[in-house]
Fold this sequence. Notes:
With 194 residues, this protein is mainly α. It has helices at residues 8-23, 30-47, 50-66, 72-88, 92-114, 119-128, 130-140, 145-159; strands at 162-164, 171-173. Strands 1-2 form a two-stranded antiparallel sheet. Helix 2 packs antiparallel against helix 3. The longest helix has 23 residues, at 92-114.
Amino acid sequence: MLHLQGHDASARQACERAIQTERKPRRPWGVTLATAHYLLMSVLEATGDLAALDSTRAELVKLADAYARGSTMTRATVHYWSARAARRLGRAAEAFTEALEADRSSRELLHLNAQALPDRRARELAGRQSRFLDLVLDLSRGGDPQRLAIAWDRLVRSRGLVAPSSRGGGCRPRCGPTRPSSAPTRGGSMRSTA
């Protein structure tokens, strides 16, 4: 809240206190610790403290490894914030790779949940996970045709991932989760995703 109100120094202090407080118990709760890191990274991104952003990103990755990135959503979110940090640090290739992995992990979770959820809930989940694809699309801008082709492929696949079941038993995935591709999978001319 402090960050959204423009009180970045206070927001940073609050995040750092939250991280210290959560590390005190014998067994810190990884999700709470990771969330405090995400919030801190958002503040550091806005203030331009690149050294602190880089070290916080490294701490987040170590934290995720220590807690085995338990859920698919946590895994996706760690990659998402790593991609954002890498972009701010000027590491375009690393940012794109991390964004692709975040999108892949979130799509894997959506694929699993769409099989069990009612149609409406699966579509809500798909909408909440759009930030992962949005980052891939944003990072694909800039003239690299291969990145644009990969992003276009992800966009097209995301449109058909959740389809209403004809039997009324919930959403059924139209296609499985994708893996990052090293080569474009769609040829021909492409429209801008902007």
